[in-house]
Amino acid sequence: MRLSRVILAATVALSATLVTACNPTLRSHGFRYPDGEVPELTVGVDSQSTVLATLGNPSTRGTFEQDTWYYISATREYLAYLRPDTRERRIIAVRFDDDGTVSAVDEFGMEDGRVVAFVDRETPTRGRELTILEQLLGNVGRLPSEQFGGEQNLPGGAGGPRPGG
Q: Do residues 118 and 67 make contact, with C-beta atoms less than 8 angstroms apart?
């Protein structure tokens, strides 16, 4: 009777450990606004300084358009050893005109993203593949003959005495 209780307690403890190990972990990146709150930016009124006061420093600025600031926030779910999954993403793009006044405010979410297909090809290299021993011992005993009296100037100024010098 006592042994069955010990086995039952061990089984319950092991099951609880396994279940809690599989709970997802949510992590937020970037600035998170409270639920339902939207930053108030007025086109034609707000300037770069008021945007900095309201939203803070941007996550990034446009590469080709320096007058566009991006505020990026994301929530990712981590589950054990699996690759993290992005659950929510919010990007606010603030564009400024030449005077530094807000000209447009756009908001983008997960539905606006695009999947980029990477090409997984490799560029082949010329020559033959060397074994580890050939790589380690390949140059043992070899000395370039040009170093000792040759006409060729090696990189780094290497070499012995030069002819005529």
A: no
Share of the chain above pLDDT 70, in %: 76
> How confident is the model over 19-41, as pLDDT tens digits?
666 677 888 888 776 665 667 88
pTM over 0.90: no
Q: Which domains does the chain have, with CATH numbers?
A: 37-112 (3.30.1450)
List, in order, residues 6 or more apart from 153 with CB less than 8 Å away.
Answer: 159
The pair of structure tokens assigned to 17 is 């450990």
